[in-house]
Amino acid sequence: MPLISPEDRRTLETLFAQELQDDVTITYFTQRESVMTVRGQECATCKDTRELLEEVTAISEKLHLHVKDFVRDEQEAQRLGITHIPAFILQGHARGTVRFFGSPAGYEFSTLIEDLLDVSKGTTTLNEKTREALSKVDQDLHIQVFVTPT
Amino acid sequence: MAHQLAIENAHITADVVEVSEFIDLAQRYQVQGVPKTVINDRAEFTGALPEPRFIQEVLKALQQKPEKKQ
Predict the structure, then answer these.
(1) Other CB atoms closer than 10 Å to residue A73's CB: what's the count?
(2) Which residues of B touch A84 (CB under 8 A)?
(3) What pTM was estimated for this model as a whole?
(4) Closest residue to A95, CB basis, from B1, B10, B36
């Protein structure tokens, strides 16, 4: 059974058709799925996160999903700063780095959808004053926002 | 909003971390309420701030020097 309901899928189809400008790639790091799990190395949400991302990216030809193995693709994970799984990074017209750690369920699903639209355009809805202040950021900054699924 | 800042500025890396999946991170950053924002591991605030306040906190973090190593 799909994670995204037929109704939500139709809404997203319309939204993506109208709002997605250029291609966005989601690079998703997971672990090899197996019937056996190694105690202490389970990734409880890796499978659901992959399925959700597959369903989202299947809605538009402009969205692409690359699935990587956290262990096998260790060098790429390190290069992209992926320290935990499930995790993914959005690449398109983002100037900085946009990452998710954990499943984008609940409210964070809306964040993912908004991010996909913004990354496809390279612009956001930030107001002019914020943009002006943001232009003063000329050193590397790492912002982490901790959330829970609600 | 952190992601929006990263989309607009090349110096910014923004992570959304679903903390119930990463208990080690919740403990390391002492997350007791959400959303909790941590900037460069040294500035932090809890709660959803309006846009002008959020960017103010980001700029404030930029001015803070890293703690000197002993």
Answers:
(1) 17
(2) 22, 25
(3) 0.93
(4) B10
Write out pLDDT tens, residues A53-100. Answer: 999 999 999 999 999 999 999 999 999 999 999 999 999 999 999 999
The residue whose two tokens read 């997203």 is A12
Backbone phi, psi, residue A138, to 5°: -120, 15
Which amino acid would we find at residue A82? I
Q: Where are the domains of chain B?
A: 2-63
Is the Cβ of A66 closer than 8 Å to some Cβ of chain B?
A: no
What CATH superfamily classification does B2-63 receive? Glutaredoxin (3.40.30.10)
Yes or no, beta carbons of A143 and B58 under 8 Å apart? yes
- Answer CATH for A6-134 from 3.40.47.40, 1.20.140.10, 3.40.30.10, 3.40.50.1360: 3.40.30.10
Q: Touching check for B41 and chain A: CB below 8 Å?
A: yes
- Residues of A with CB below 8 A from B1's CB? 126
CA torsion sign, A85 to A65 to A90 to A2?
Answer: negative
- Using a CB–CB cutoff of 8 Å, tell me whether A35 touches chain B: no
Say what the pLDDT of residue B62 is. 87
Tens digits of residue pLDDT in A21-59 = 999 999 999 997 665 555 555 688 999 999 999 999 999
